Predict the structure.
Amino acid sequence: MMAWCIPSGDFMEGYEVGMLDGIELGRRQLEGEWAALDVANARTARAVAQAGPYDELADRRGQHDRAEQHRRIVRERGILPA
């Protein structure tokens, strides 16, 4: 029959250090992934900002009904002056 062993203090200290190191490594990994997403999101935001207003883009694509619908909605919502 095998006797159960209660972990000693040294084992628990090592376990705690390992646990804390794992948490730290996970945090660093997430921070790196978030930084990469920030770069991608900034690139997308710049592209969208440089594209121009939606109604002008719709007019250029020949979607005049969409452009007019967009203008009507932003006027109704008070985003742009009537």
User: Anything to note?
Assistant: The chain has three helices and no strands. The helical segments are 9-51, 54-60, 64-76. Residues 36-82 form one domain. Residues 3 and 11 are 18 Å apart (CA to CA).
